[in-house]
Amino acid sequence: MERMESFLKRNFEVAPKHPSEEAQRRWRGAVGAVVKNRRRRFRMVPDLDQRCVVEAKKQKIQEKIRVALYVQKAALQFIDAGSKIDYQLPEDVRKAGFYINPDELASISRGYDKKALKNHGGVHGIAREVCVSLDYGIKTDELTIRQDIYGVNKYVEKPPRSFWMFVWDALHDLTLIILMICALISTVVGLATEGWPKGIYDGLGIILCIFLVVIVTSVSDYKQSLQFRDLDKEKKKIFIQVTRDGYRQKVSIYDLVVGDVVHLSIGDRVPADGLYISGYSFLIDASSLSGESEPVYVSHEKPFLLAGTKVQDGSAEMLVTSVGMRTEWGKLMETLSQGGEDETPLQVKLNGVATIIGKIGLAFATMTFCVLLGRFLFDKIYRMGFKWYEDDALTILNYFAISVTIIVVAVPEGLPLAVTLSLSFAMKKLMDEKALVRHLSACETMGSANCICTDKTGTLTTNHMVVDKIWICEASRSFRGSETVTCLKSTISEKVLSVLLQCIFENSGSEVVRGKDGKNIILGTPTETALLEFGLEFEGLIDSQHQGCKKLKVEPFNSVKKKMSVLIKLPSGGICAFAKGASEIILDMCDHIIDSDGNAIPLSAKHKEDILNVINSFACEALRTLCLAFKDIHENQNAEEIPAIGYTLIAVFGIKDPVRPGVKEAVQTCIAAGIKVRMVTGDNINTAKAIAKECGILTEDGLAIEGPEFRSKSPEEMKDLIPKIQVMARSLPLDKHALVTKLRKIFNEVVAVTGDGTNDAPALHEADIGFAMGIAGTEVAKESADVIVLDDNFTSIINVAKWGRSVYINIQKFVQFQLTVNVVALMVNFASACITGSAPLTAVQLLWVNMIMDTLGALALATDPPNNDMMKRPPVGRNEDFITKVMWRNIIGQSLYQLIVLGLLIFDGKKLLRFEDPDSDAILNTFIFNTFVFCQVFNEINSREMEKINVLEGVFSNWIFVAVLTSTIAFQIIIVEFLGAFASTVPLSWHLWLLSIVIGSISMIVAVIIKFIPVEPYNVTVHYQNDYKALPSGPEAV
């Protein structure tokens, strides 16, 4: 057992994320030739040689794009190799009402061709040529004609595999091919020796069984492929903001057409090639397209945008000029779609298990054939004088077929594929529970997670924010809609409210737009939405004059600066700067506050202390705090740069974001499961602590720390500090990345981390499992994540952990079941061949047994849904043995029972059962076969629980398990009672049927007894909270 685990760890270990090519090639080499069907077994495994070819193509495309980006004088050369193309306007384009050739339009952005753009009248000229108003957008009824002329925004993908391709894959099984040849020879020889129709029964029986195996296998594989296809469709549901028909709306990126006006903001991936119309501080990361990490500023001077690049900072509007395969991104994606997804650690490990068992099975099959042939030849030479009969060739062929069939049974081809089956089933179920798994390995890795670093806003809280309190002009008020508005209007001068509303509406990354129904819709982050909703309460009551303001410069909010600033030209002609953001940061920028008359008065130490007390009091009530400030820019000051100091504080807002229902219970579930939950947030520490206590994350002995303090610690201090950290507030994305890295590398924890912003991408990439938020998350964060939480709910993360554990345990159950069948089938046939000179199980019977333990067994056990008990045990550690001592105990115990029972029946069955009929041999062999099958049926039930005695709990909640068991029993009755000519069976009396069932069912009693044999089930260290102790396992955990 230890040697087996050592072999697996040495040759079949790969990292769950970004495995090295050396590790991938090592396990492929270790598998060797012991593979029955490479096409099927390695269908979900990427071809590394093909991947190298794909990588070379990718680098070639990136090199072309680098030329366009960084050698703009020669930009067109990477398309035309120096030759200038004279584009003509096709007749169909002219008739459609457009005035520019699609290829010429595509070449302008793709080639960074400023000269061509200028010749066409710039962005506005291009807009006229593609018949679009930059303010109104395209009309929805023009979509079809634009797609016909300029193409659709989709790239070429590999066509989906049909059912018959899976049948073709299944037929490539070498052992089945050999058996088909044997069946053909058997039929020919049988017809020659026994005539029609008796001579065809043996061969036809094997053919029919092979046909059944191939069909069942193909149906199972095809259904898996359909599930993965559905998941791929979900992954591609990406939406973007556009202006169409005169109003803002969300559309799928695959519905974009040339002429669309697209709105881009931080974290978006540019969905098509286009031209910059307008925007602020627009910074593009082109590394995914060009391979260069240097960000590119896009402006009116450099207006070109390429599909596939990411918005790193700022916001902008873009005119789409080319889509789909006319973009370099389309060509790149066509190439990348051929690369395939990396194999998962469990798939690799089970390939190792299959290799070991396959080698053992091959040895047993060879020995069985040699023993059977040796005994046959011995009888010929010493008892019959080497006299040959007509059916002797058929006997030898039958021996060979049995040996080949032993290989079919012994090489557990279904083990690695069972992982895929279980993962596809889990991923489909998780979709229903609002978790989209992007990478297969994440689902199984999450089962081992012992730490979750979670965001606060939107994950633990609802992300539905409203202004709850406001401090303005040295007075704090609770906000109660129009009632508070009336109160503020009567106690504070209109000048103060006007400045406040200007700051709210002008210093915002969100927008108030008109919907189809004419009503106001706020597009933007929940925090800004709360402020804009507050501002809209004053609409019509105060003349804030914010509509007449003009933005000169914008510094958008990001998680590093934790503030947003804007420079505004006022209708009166003056220039003003507005700032908002994290309370203490904005307060440090201020040296004045505004009084109730609208005058700026110096900010004294006493004022500052009072304001900090207000901020802390808001934060202690679990309110998110924001400060708003302004600064008038005088003529002698630099009016091009946004100032960093000298502001006047306007107000402090306390924004309420309630804790999600069920979060506290989900956190307690994590604690019971040995998973430590840490909150990492950019919010005020008091707000974070209040929310963490409400969720049950922060305990009496836990530590809450701020990001700057965390960063200041030495490596030695961090070793002592990190295990105690439960809350990290005012953190930067780099703090989250540092925490995740140290937890993984120093403390060897399996870390899950959540993120929603562009700057969270490094932490999501570094973590064992990265969770991106489906609602609040940016496209960049989602692409870096392994799982997308569609409802942004912490409870959904727990569901992934539960299903991850379920996948791991289900595969262990299946391995335990399959190894038991393997051991018994190999030993019974080999021992019988050695002692009696015949094999009790024929080729057809062994093929049926193989289907029970392989495809049907995987369906029954690998799809068992999770139960609540799974979250009452510690997670499996990184270096845990896959085949545990508990599994070995169960395998050995059940194998011994079955071998003893079947051995007694084989060697002394006639006497024990008092068979005296002429066909007693046929009846005994049928009874042995029937008993063997029922032992497997009841052992399949036993395998549902490896440690608990009650194996029937929840059995009817898994309809697949019940259906597989029912169909197995039904088909066993058909084989024994009606297909005897093909399966070498005879009908049995009801007494013998009952006895077969009783002998099989005794294995359930044996399982109970075995489970009282003590073994150490776990060898894993986990960190617990709240004095949690691991629950006992074994029979006492009934």
Automatic annotation (TrEMBL):
Residues 122-191 form the Cation-transporting P-type ATPase N-terminal domain. The keyword Nucleotide-binding applies. The keyword Membrane applies. It catalyses: Ca(2+)(in) + ATP + H2O = Ca(2+)(out) + ADP + phosphate + H(+). Its EC number is 7.2.2.10. One of its GO terms (molecular function) is P-type calcium transporter activity. It is found in: Membrane. It is a multi-pass membrane protein. The chain crosses the membrane at residues 174-193, 199-219, 356-378, 398-426, 819-841, 886-907, 922-939, 959-984, 990-1010. One of its GO terms (cellular component) is plasma membrane. Keywords: ATP-binding, Calcium, Calcium transport, Calmodulin-binding, Ion transport, Magnesium, Membrane, Metal-binding, Nucleotide-binding, Translocase, Transmembrane, Transmembrane helix, Transport. Pfam families: CaATP_NAI (PF12515), Cation_ATPase (PF13246), Cation_ATPase_C (PF00689), Cation_ATPase_N (PF00690), E1-E2_ATPase (PF00122), Hydrolase_3 (PF08282). Catalyzes the hydrolysis of ATP coupled with the transport of calcium. This magnesium-dependent enzyme catalyzes the hydrolysis of ATP coupled with the translocation of calcium from the cytosol out of the cell, into the endoplasmic reticulum, or into organelles. Belongs to the cation transport ATPase (P-type) (TC 3.A.3) family. Type IIB subfamily. This is Calcium-transporting ATPase. It comes from Canna indica (Indian-shot). The lineage of its organism: Eukaryota, Viridiplantae, Streptophyta, Embryophyta, Tracheophyta.
